[in-house]
Design goal:
The complex is a heterodimer. By secondary structure, chain A is mostly helical. Chain A contains 2 helices and no strands. Chain A has a domain of 40 residues. The radius of gyration of chain A is 23 Å and the shape is rod-shaped. The relative contact order of chain A is 0.06. Chain B has one domain. In chain B, 73% of the residues lie in helices and 0% in strands. Chain B is built from 8 helices and no strands. In chain B, helix 2 runs antiparallel to helix 3. The longest helix of chain B is centred in the first third of the chain and has 33 residues. Chain B is globular. Classes of the chains: A mainly alpha, B mainly alpha. The interface between A and B is medium-sized, with 31 and 39 residues.
Amino acid sequence: MNWGSWSDFWQMGGYGLYVWGSFAMTIVCIAGEIWFLRRHRLQTMQRLKRMNAWETPT
Amino acid sequence: MNLYRYASPSTFYPLAGRLAPWFFALAFILAVIGLYISFFVAPTDFQQGEGYRIIFIHVPAAWMSMFIYIVMAFWSAIGLAWNTRLSFIMARALAPTGAMFTFIALWTGAFWGKPMWGAWWVWDARLTSELILFFLYVGVMALQAAIDDPRRSDRAGALLNLVGVINVPIIYFSVKWWNTLHQGSSVSLTRAPSMAHIMLWGMLIMALAAWMYAIAVAFVRARSMLLERERQASWVRELPEGKA
């Protein structure tokens, strides 16, 4: 175990800004990509549904 | 089993849909193990203190940025040679994820460079060639978005991918060919790694997590692209996704 306390952990031996700045941006990027991916899929499916509804005679 | 069968969009679509959650799950499990090693198992570095822990995302992201580009160029070449629809879709589906990993490699590099070199950015061969890789990804996506006809767009993008792949060996060997501020590789195929084993393991597990994530994301994106592209095809019309 490298850390005596939570505050040690967050401070990262004085490199807190750099270490957490790196990890935070990675998490933001991945979360953002998954969000965009989901939105893209939902939009595509909605368009498909509209198109099918338009073309199927009722 | 006939692998060629999966080159058909109508068989690839459900297969990718079934596989993607497994790749996401593997990515998550590997990332948890990798992060645990990164922060709790790997010891403090004797030179860089705790600051070196950026390595656990910087190196995997940089590997992915180059590797995804090679895979993208591979699918582009297959697409150009045999005119297979799915190859072009795979190449397109990988581009945003590749760009994302390139951005992460550059960003974490800057956050590592600042405390260790005293500068967020230097115009060193490694950094500059990686920046060019980022522009190549963005350039391919912009080019493809600018061409309305999907087939032309596929071909133009694929061609640019193939031209751009020359940059990958330049990035990889930049630390050998030029005097760079960026350090040489600690992990190489030809000699024993010059780092502690547990650090190496942490890095490899994180890289594997990034791999699984990239595959999962590319599958999901390719599926949406297929639905858009083939919306007139009967296999798409019969999917439950399209039913109200």
